[in-house]
Structure formats: structure tokens, C-alpha cells
Amino acid sequence: MALAGLFLVTFLSVHLGINLMLLKNDGGRAFTEAATFMGTNPVIKVFEIVLFGGFLLHIIFGLMVSVQNKAARPAPYACSNSSDTSLFSKYMFHTGIILFIFLVLHFFDFYFIKVGLVAPPQGIAIHDFYQRSLLLFSTPWYSLLYIVSFIVLGIHLNHAIQSAFQTLGWNHSKYMDAVKVTGSTFSVAIAVGFSLVPIYILLFLK
Amino acid sequence: MKFTLKIWRQKNVTEKGEMVSYDVSDISPDSSFFEMLDTLNQQLIMTGGDPVSFDHDCREGICGTCSLYINGRPHGPVKGVTTCQLHMRSFTSGSTIQIEPWRAKAFPVISDLIVDRSAFDSIIQAGGYVSVNTGGVPDANTIPVPKERSDAAFDAASCIGCGACVAACSNAAAMLFIGAKVSHLSQLPQGKVEATKRVLKMVARMDELGFGNCSNTYACEAECPKGISVANIARMNRGFIGAKLFSEKEKIIKESL
Q1: Which of A76, A103, B100, B142 has the lowest tally of Cβ within 10 angstroms?
Q2: What is the ipTM of this complex?
Q3: What is the CATH code for B118-256?
Q4: Considering only CB atoms, which residues of chain B are within 8 Å of chain A?
Q5: Which residues, other chains included, contact A128 with Cβ-Cβ below 8 Å and sequence gap of 6+?
Q6: Confidence band (pLDDT; 50, 70, 90) for B142?
Q7: Candidate from A73-82, B37-46, B117-126 with smallest mean pLDDT
């Protein structure tokens, strides 16, 4: 789960890079070019399968571990635990479920249209992700949903990154603080970075 | 001082338990938590009731026998102490104190606040030892151990096996306990020989016994009365992954499991 998770982190960075091209004021040329490259390049096509594998492993292991953990304490405490832990570390399963729901929604909005499973909305070509994004993010409630999902992702990642290092045994008194700070900075960058796109579209392009 | 106690009462392993309320008064702020419970039990005996059973032995914080989950925290609100080293001055007079046993599938409740922790013994039997051949006692210092190593091993060795880590963990995982035992033995030259076999066997036994998985909330480290660091868990993970991936001996060990 840790390894698959770290792999998904690299994917997020690439995805964010492409999304931020939407902010370039060129009528979506750079973004469309990048999206076309990601949609047609054969190497990327292969990696798409690897990526789905990564998601699948991460989700399956996550579910398995959660079921085992639940079974490890059949009788709950009457007084809920008040030990000092970081705020969201106990809610990885819950944030994971929210992210999964977002992922399904995201697939219906973009990926399924691309592969032809879902018809694109009227007046928008199958591969025109730029117009599609503009249309979606012009709806304030959709933008809000999107931003909330990425805040949840930020929370998930904030615990996940240092946790993956610990699980893989990459813990050293010299580097652990740096890993924690880098992980938190990265999770904030992901949450803010992805949220910039709907905010920008709502404010300037609507 | 006076308190309202809400205590888990359960006759035996099979019977269903429940929280029962008791009142105690005239408690000295300097009395220990157990002395307060002794007072309650005396009161119960005098009135013909059934005294509350709880585990304790040395009452000086070194044996690891005591095990109470007090107000949602193993060993109560004070950091770095066992229940026997907890004093009533740490509570406000008139308050309600909830007392429960450790909760884990691998630690069944035997009676009231006593749980069966032989799962820990079973894990130690699986690999938490150093095989020593009989013979004369070796001279001291014949095997050199670097100071930092012996210090790190000693820090891990201070684990008293009370099970507070399992009790605090949201997944009832025993990783801090096993991490401590693995780190204690495998960092020293005498224990290093069996390091691969040890980590595989102890982790396998842990899984068998139904402990949960580590999700790195670090509640265990926060509640450990001996301040065992979660760095020991990472060291165990490192050893485990190394043993799984790179050990040529693994096949032989698998057969001996």
C-alpha cells in the first residue's frame, strides 16, 4: 500500500503540472497540447495501465488492512481514545472513501468521455478537455466540490507521505523531520495547486 | 478527595460485561490509583459485594503487569508512567473516572479489568530470544559493542511488555512491542545472528494472533510508559522487508516456521 501510494504521488505531480497549464492565458493551447500528448503517446498509454494497477493495489490493500484492523478490536472502548495523535491520522480510511467517490465522479467527467464510454456534453468535442473544464468549473457548486475533494486529498497526503516512509523502514533520526516537512509542504502544494484551476476559471474566465 | 468511578465489570471470558458506577470518598491526593481501587474493594468486601479484579504486581513501574485504560488513555493521563505510578492528585476531586480493560481481539478479558496477555508471550516464544549454547560463562567485553549500539538496544530493551501500545492503537496493533524486541536483540552482536529468522517469525506470529496493522498514528509512542520510539517499528519494517527480499536463508526459515 505504501509503495503504490508513493507511486500515485508521482502521478499527482504530473497531473498537477498539466492542470496548471490551464492558467496560461493562451486560450488553452498549451493545456490541450499536453492533454493530447498524454492521450496519444504510446509510452503514456502503457503507463496508464500501470497507473490503474497502482490505484487498484492501493485501494484493495487499503480495504484489506482496514477490515483486519476493525477485526483486531471486536469490542470497542466505552470511553473513546484520547491519546496524542496527529489530527487526521486515524481517518485515512474515511478520507480514502471520499477520494474514491471523487475519483469515480472525475472519471465520468473526463476519462470516460475520452475513451467513449460517456457522451460528451453538447457542442464539445470528445478530446476538447479545455472547453470541458471551462464548462464544469463555471458551475460554482462543482468547483466547490472539487476544491473540497482536494483539501481532503491534502489531509490524506499529509499523513500518507511520512507514513509510507515509516512503513518502508526509511526512518532515520537525521532525515525524518525533513521527510515530514517535505510531505506536508507537498500535500499543501497539491491541495492549493489543483484548487487554483477552478478558482482561476471562476474569477477570470467565466 | 472523592470520585465517581465507572468500572467495566465482567464475570468471565464468555459472559457479557457492562460499565458499573461506584462512589469513593476520603481519598488522599497522595494515594496511588491502585490504593484508591484498594479502598473501593475494601468498601465492596465490607458491604458484601464482589471486589473489582485488576492486574498489578510490583507497583513500582517496572514489571508491566498493570493495565488500566483510564478516561480513554492506557495508564491514565500522565505521560511516561504505568498505572501503578499514577496518583490521585492527577485527577480533580468530584470528577468521574472511566476505567476499562485493554481492548483487543488478541487480549481477551478474563475478569473485570484483567486481560489475558499471553499473546505477547507467544510472540516472544516465536523469536524474541537469543540461542545460547551451554558451557562456561564468556569473559566480559570479549565481544565489543559500540556505545551507541548498546544505548539504542538498551532503549528498546526498556519495554516492559505491558501492552499499552496495543490498547492505545486504533487498530490494536502490536508493532511497537515487536519493534522494541526486534531492535533490542538484533542490534547486538549476540542477537544479530538470528535477526532474519527472528523478525519473520515474530511478525508471522503477530499476524496469526489477530493483532491489527500499523497505520502510523503513533498513539503507541505517546502512551508507552517507557517512551519506546516508533523508530523501532521502522527498524523492524526495514529488517522484515530485507529478510523477505534479500535473504537467501528465507527458504530454510519458511520451512522451519
Answers
A1: B142
A2: 0.88
A3: 1.10.1060.10
A4: 6, 8, 19, 69, 71-74, 98, 100, 103-106, 109, 168, 170-173, 210-219, 222-223, 230-231, 233-241
A5: A32, A120
A6: confident
A7: A73-82
The answer to whether the CB atoms of B237 and A176 lie below 8 A apart is no
C-alpha cell at B152: 539504542
Q: Which CATH architecture group holds B3-110?
A: Roll (3.10)
Residue B232, H or E segment: helix B231-246
CA angle B251, B239, B185 (to 5 degrees): 105
pLDDT at residue A206, as a whole number: 65
Sign of CA dihedral A173, A175, A178, A184: negative
Pairing outcome for strands B3-9 and B96-100: parallel
Are the Cβ atoms of B100 and A77 closer than 8 angstroms? yes
Sequence ranges of the domains in chain B: 3-110, 118-256
What whole-number distance in Å separates Cα of residue B31 and Cα of residue B78? Answer: 15
> What confidence tens digit (pLDDT) does each residue in A20-56 have?
998 888 888 899 888 888 888 889 889 989 999 999 9
Task: Give me the residue label for grid cell 478490536.
Answer: A73
pLDDT digits (tens, 9 = 90+) for B164-192: 999 999 999 999 999 999 999 999 998 99
Q: How close is the nearest chain B Cα to the Cα of A10, in Å?
A: 21
Assess contact for B180 and B161: CB atoms under 8 A.
no
Give, in order, the Cα–Cα distances in Å from A204 to each of A12, A23, A25, A137, B27: 25, 10, 10, 11, 69
Q: Are strands B96-100 and B73-74 parallel, antiparallel or unpaired?
A: unpaired
Q: Where does chain A have alpha helices with state H?
A: 2-20, 29-40, 42-71, 92-106, 112-114, 129-137, 140-167, 176-200
Containing B231, the helix (H) or strand (E) segment is helix B231-246
Burial B196-220 (b: 16+ CB within 10 A, else e): bbbbbbbbbbbeebbbbbbbbbbbb
